Amino acid sequence: MKYTHLVLFDIDGTLVHCGPTPKRVFKQGLIDTFGTAGPIDGWIFDGKTDPMIVRELMAEAGVSCTDELVKKALDIYAQGIKRELPGEANKKIYPGVINLLEGLAKQPVLLGLLTGNIQKGARAKLGSLDLWRYFSFGAFADDSSVRKELADIAVQRAYEMTGQQFSGKQIVIIGDTEHDIRCGRHLGAKAIGVGTARSTAKELLAHGADHAFDDLSDHERVLRAILE
């Protein structure tokens, strides 16, 4: 199949909200590994990769943090979220997401994930809401802790899967933070902002989004913006 676009979705705040469980089990992973979670209760996770969050919190706590310890903490987190997220009563899919994904599935586009989650965390979150099945691949925090590098990895992975090189506005990145908007700028990618979390659509436009929506409920309009 010849694809017209590579469409890459963020997860948290864009597709789903998973309630307090992810942060709680993340905190437990830090405590079990380092003896402290640092100032996690007031920490903003938005737009950051999981390893970056671990390192930031431990730096604030004045605790030494090696690659091996980061991996240990995230392994504990991955086990916890897989075990506990299915019972989270406050998890939800944002408005319009399913209709948009169903609409994209009928188009000649390649759907992937571009997320700061480690892969096991991403799968637990989307799998608990039956959304994992829509995505054939992704770039995850296991691949790099640097968000900008994840965009390059996603494009390379898409090429390896399809033999097709995506460039410029063929690449569409959809997310809810300024980090999502900026991470594909060096590729000339189209950025679509979703104001379902901390940032408003207006703020995401100010950060350089090509389009921004309050949410994805007007899925046909969003689909047109992706495919234009």
From TrEMBL:
Sections of the chain in a coiled coil: none
GO cellular component, one term: cytosol
Organism domain of life: Bacteria
Entry-linked Gene3D superfamilies: HAD superfamily/HAD-like, Putative phosphatase, domain 2
GO biological process: DNA repair
GO molecular function: phosphoglycolate phosphatase activity
Pfam families xref list: HAD_2
InterPro entries reported for this sequence: HAD-like_hydrolase_sf, HAD-like_sf, HAD_2, HAD_sf, PGP-like_dom2
Protein name: Hydrolase
Organism the protein comes from: Candidatus Edwardsbacteria bacterium GWF2_54_11
UniProt lineage: Bacteria, Candidatus Edwardsiibacteriota
